[in-house]
Write a structure and sequence with these properties.
The structure is a single chain. This protein is of the alpha+beta class. Among the domains are: 2-113; 143-246, Hypothetical protein, domain 2 (Endonuclease III, domain 1, Orthogonal Bundle). Helix content is 44%, strand content 12%. Strands 1, 2, 3, 4, 5 and 6 form a 6-stranded antiparallel sheet that branches. The relative contact order is 0.13.
């Protein structure tokens, strides 16, 4: 990644509503392998909770997030020119780290030149790749936000969890970013069940560095999943969400995705096992799983209902 100034003096300052001054920063990233920002934008973060809001017409993607290097807030607008991603960032913290984090949650940091070969080995995936050309899975902004969502979504409907998350952002966030862990840890929360206790445990783990995206990506998936499950309130399903969609690890087979297993039966035939089928997807087993789940949702509307994409 190369970074450049946004004005004659480099990073420029501007007034941030209701708080400390924000800076602006520009960066570029060369993306290796197939990539379509338009396709990725259309299927942002699966089906919930972070569907992009207030997007302008055109080819850019905009989102606000919490930077996990220093828990500042940042907004990024991403545009594509050929195989290059252009990032225009605004925020009040480490914008170099924000740029790196953007690359991670948009899967722009993955060398995907071998991704088409997965379709050559697996005709089902070849058809899926043709349906969604250039898709790169867009994860949660960070493992911290994925873990918080896992807690909010426990034992309630997704639409209810999305409302709880929106309320937290409205009450304790900044500029549309999810609340920082130090804020969430001390906030006077009113949530059902043990969600307050579990959210505080997630916040504590984030502050201790146990939900660091780069660290979770740097170890074997089994070790990363085991570490996440040491956080109170995060079981096997939640741990997969944190590692697969929070750290956006590209080559993990979800073991607790009932709908994915059902889709394998639909597409590959009864009796076919996910572990067996997914061998042909290496080293992009996450990507293949996300592709099949998106196409299943398009067909069944089982999560989003009639309004789903």
């Amino acid at each position: 990644m190369t970074a450049g100034p946004t004005g004659p003096a480099g990073a420029s300052a501007t007034s941030a509503p209701g708080g400390a001054p924000a800076r602006r920063h520009a960066a570029t990233a060369e993306v290796l392998g197939p990539w379509s920002l338009a396709t990725s934008r259309a299927f942002w973060e699966g089906f919930a909770p972070g569907e992009l809001q207030h997007q302008d017409e055109g080819a850019s993607l905009r989102t606000v997030f919490r930077v996990d290097a220093d828990w500042s807030w940042a907004e990024v607008e991403v545009t594509q020119r050929g195989g290059t991603a252009h990032l225009a960032l605004t925020g009040n913290g480490d914008l170099d780290a924000a740029a790196q984090q953007t690359r991670r949650f948009l899967s722009l940091d993955v060398d995907a030149r071998a991704w088409p070969a997965v379709g050559e080995r697996d005709p089902v995936l070849a058809a899926a790749q043709a349906r969604l050309p250039g898709l790169r899975p867009c994860g949660f902004h960070s493992p911290y936000e994925a873990a918080a969502w896992a807690v909010l979504a426990q034992r309630i409907r997704i639409v209810q969890a999305a409302r709880l998350r929106a309320d937290l952002v409205d009450r304790y966030g900044e500029h549309g970013a999810f609340p920082a862990p130090q804020t969430l840890r001390s906030a006077d929360l009113d949530l059902p069940g043990r969600k307050v206790e579990y959210l505080r445990a997630v916040a504590e783990a984030a502050l201790e560095g146990r939900l660091d995206g780069a660290a979770l990506r740097s170890v074997e998936p089994a070790r990363a999943l085991a570490g996440v499950q040491e956080v109170k309130g995060l079981g096997p399903f939640a741990a997969e969400l944190v590692v697969v969609r929070g750290a956006n690890a590209p080559d993990v087979v979800p073991q607790n995705e009932r709908r994915l297993r059902e889709e394998i039966g639909e597409l590959y035939g009864a009796g076919r096992d996910l572990a067996e089928v997914s061998e042909a997807w290496r080293p992009f087993r996450t990507w293949a799983s996300v592709l099949l789940r998106i196409l299943r949702e398009e067909r069944t509307r089982e999560i989003g209902g009639p309004a789903a994409r």
